[in-house]
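Page 37, continued from 36.
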């Protein structure tokens, strides 16, 4: 199964994988080789790519996925590999968005939607980076020691 995660800025991953787990707007979905063709919208969430028993985690900020029997193409509004995420920066962004929300809902619906999206994006980034850190601690590896280029 060939998998691509692409944003407007770059290709985040491109290669052959065993399975992909996506955050569809209607719920999570697992994609295996020979999956029925479909096109779906994606929510904010985590994409999990499994290759040879190893999992890689990606935080995405919405988009679309096209699934073919031998290919999954994810066109994401934003996407980052867990290794690229600066947890401290993501935490600060989450706290800023939470503070703005706590101070009162902006009357401008567009501004409110932007703040909610910022909060969701920051929370997904934090969760994805922490999941990777926990996995590495459980296997005795240190972050950045897997051949990451970050």
């Amino acid at each position: 199964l060939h998998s691509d995660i692409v944003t407007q800025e770059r290709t985040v991953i491109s290669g052959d994988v065993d399975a992909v787990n996506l955050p569809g707007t209607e719920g999570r979905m697992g994609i295996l080789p020979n999956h029925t063709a479909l096109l779906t919208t994606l929510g904010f969430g985590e994409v999990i790519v499994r290759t040879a028993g190893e999992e890689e985690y990606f935080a995405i900020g919405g988009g679309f996925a096209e699934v073919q029997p031998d290919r999954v193409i994810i066109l994401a509004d934003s996407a980052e590999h867990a290794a690229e995420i600066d947890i401290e920066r993501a935490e600060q962004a989450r706290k800023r968005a939470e503070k703005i929300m706590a101070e009162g809902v902006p009357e401008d619906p567009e501004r409110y939607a932007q703040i909610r999206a910022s909060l969701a994006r920051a929370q997904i980034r934090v969760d994805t980076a922490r999941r990777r850190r926990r996995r590495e601690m459980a296997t005795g590896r240190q972050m950045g020691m897997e051949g990451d280029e970050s």
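The mean pLDDT is 84. Flag for discussion at group meeting. The CA atoms of residues 32 and 90 lie 31 Å apart.
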